[in-house]
């Protein structure tokens, strides 16, 4: 019983300590915020003071005909302005690069989702994304050497569908094994509406009779 009492007393003591630490933390946080506000206010007043001093200096230079001081002031102003423009340009380029990358990822994901299922969507999206680039909001197709081509996204998608390298991850191409139509060597035969355009064309060229049979089902 005494052990339980001691444990309860210890818990109460720990609660008090925790409350005290919380109060101290909040006080420190409040003090830190106050110091930061004071620092910002001080910097603002200092900047205003510097501007006033510089303004007075330039006015005096004008009155005294101090061309060198005026020229130096203009040069400093030009350098500062150039740096600000450079910073803005760099920031814009970074944002533009990210926007283009996001657009490529979006288009690749959309195309992959139309042609694959499950985890294969991610695999196909990576493949597609490496052949796309975006500039000024326009997505174009790249060749194997990374050069921009005139191939449209629609034609590129058809090329992906017809490319045997991706047959194992394209929708409808993952099935294998026995149990299919005997006239096809035991392979699983897709339904007509499961075939993509390239597959239908290949079947029509190879076996028009089978093409017509599947189409009529």
Q: How would you describe this structure to a colleague?
A:
This protein is mostly helical and 217 residues long. It has a domain at 66-170. It has helices at residues 2-64, 67-115, 120-129, 153-162, 197-206, 208-216; strands spanning 132-135, 138-141. A hairpin with a 2-residue loop joins strand 1 (132-135) and strand 2. Helix 2 packs across helix 3 (120-129) and helix 5 packs across helix 6 (208-216). The chain is flat and about 95 Å long.
Q: Helicity, in percent?
A: 55-70%
What fraction strand? Answer: under 5%
Largest sheet: 2 strands, antiparallel
SSE order in H/E notation? HHHEEHHH
- Kindly name the structural category: mainly alpha
**Unreliable runs, pLDDT <50, ≥5 residues?**
175-188
Gist?
The chain is mainly alpha-helical. The protein is built from 6 helices and 2 strands; from the N terminus they run αααββααα.
List the helices and strands and how they pair.
Layout lengths: L1 H63 L2 H49 L4 H10 L2 E4 L2 E4 L11 H10 L34 H10 L1 H9 L1
Helix pairs in contact: 2-3, 5-6
